[in-house]
């Protein structure tokens, strides 16, 4: 029974599963999952306020926040520190880095949100959230999950690339290849019948290496 409770406590939301519900106190007041209905958002956790890696990350997250909003994507931070600590820290960042943190930061003292999202890795730390990133779409479905260890700051370019790729796939029904960047060609799903495979050979505007691996330009 104890083992079952532990597994439930730290269960990681799966890609394609509904985003765990939450209501939380933040630096912008109380927010809930319901507030983001019909919106994409990125929820990320950080280990603690007033720490070197986390501070550099918050500056970097704020730098990409305007770009995320252009994609109609919101941003939410989280740690198990208090609202007072968050407010003091974001003010410190503004003073030392001339950077105003415009997105809300959840104060998860009771660890309810962190627990529901599986953000605490007890093998790494019993008292801090890991560096987790969840991309949730406008239907409140988890679309991507990334985890980093406490010692490694996140790559903002990759987070932007990931969000853009997901939205591109939704809009055009096309998967994206390795190292894809906005503006690059996307992949075309392989044909599922022999007839479709023959039709593929005659289709114009495709760059095909073989029948199952073709690319196309979205601008064509």
UniProtKB/TrEMBL annotation:
Positions annotated to bind substrate: 131
Keyword Disulfide bond listed: yes
Location relative to the cell: Cytoplasm
Keywords linked to the UniProt accession: Antioxidant, Cytoplasm, Disulfide bond, Oxidoreductase, Peroxidase, Redox-active center
Domain Thioredoxin: 13-168
Source species, domain of life: Bacteria
Keyword set includes Disulfide bond: yes
Catalytic activity: a hydroperoxide + [thioredoxin]-dithiol = an alcohol + [thioredoxin]-disulfide + H2O
Main location: cytoplasm
Span list, region Disordered: 173-200
Enzyme class (EC, first level): oxidoreductase
InterPro entries: AhpC/TSA, Peroxiredoxin, Peroxiredoxin_AhpC-typ, Peroxiredoxin_C, Peroxiredoxin_TDXH, PRX_1cys, Thioredoxin-like_sf, Thioredoxin_domain
Active site: 54 (cysteine sulfenic acid (-soh) intermediate)
E.C. numbers: 1.11.1.24
Disulfide bonds: 208-214
Family: Belongs to the peroxiredoxin family. Prx6 subfamily. Belongs to the peroxiredoxin family. AhpC/Prx1 subfamily.
Misc. remarks from the entry: The active site is a conserved redox-active cysteine residue, the peroxidatic cysteine (C(P)), which makes the nucleophilic attack on the peroxide substrate. The peroxide oxidizes the C(P)-SH to cysteine sulfenic acid (C(P)-SOH), which then reacts with another cysteine residue, the resolving cysteine (C(R)), to form a disulfide bridge. The disulfide is subsequently reduced by an appropriate electron donor to complete the catalytic cycle.
HAMAP family the record matches: Peroxiredoxin (MF_00401)
Subunit text: Homodecamer. Pentamer of dimers that assemble into a ring structure.
Functional description taken from the UniProt entry: Thiol-specific peroxidase that catalyzes the reduction of hydrogen peroxide and organic hydroperoxides to water and alcohols, respectively. Plays a role in cell protection against oxidative stress by detoxifying peroxides.
Name under which the protein is recorded: Peroxiredoxin
Native organism taxonomy: Bacteria, Bacillati, Bacillota, Bacilli, Bacillales
């Amino acid at each position: 029974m104890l083992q079952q409770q532990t597994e439930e406590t730290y269960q990681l939301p799966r890609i394609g599963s509904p985003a765990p519900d939450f209501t939380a106190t933040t630096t912008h007041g109380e927010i809930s999952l319901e507030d983001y209905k019909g919106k994409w958002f990125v929820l990320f956790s950080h280990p603690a306020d007033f720490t070197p890696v986390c501070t550099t990350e918050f500056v970097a997250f704020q730098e990409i926040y305007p770009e995320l909003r252009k994609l109609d994507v919101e941003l939410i931070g989280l740690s198990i520190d208090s609202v007072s600590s968050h407010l003091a820290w974001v003010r410190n960042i503004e003073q030392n880095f001339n950077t105003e943190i415009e997105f809300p930061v959840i104060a998860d003292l009771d660890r309810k949100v962190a627990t529901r999202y599986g953000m605490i890795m007890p093998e790494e730390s019993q008292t801090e959230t890991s560096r987790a990133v969840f991309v949730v779409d406008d239907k409140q479905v988890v679309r991507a999950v990334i985890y980093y260890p406490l010692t490694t700051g996140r790559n903002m370019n990759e987070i932007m690339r990931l969000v853009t790729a997901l939205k591109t796939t939704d809009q055009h029904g096309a998967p994206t290849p390795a190292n894809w960047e906005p503006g690059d060609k996307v992949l075309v799903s392989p044909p599922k019948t022999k007839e479709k495979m023959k039709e593929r050979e005659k289709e114009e505007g495709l760059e095909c290496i073989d029948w199952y691996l073709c690319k196309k330009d979205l601008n064509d």
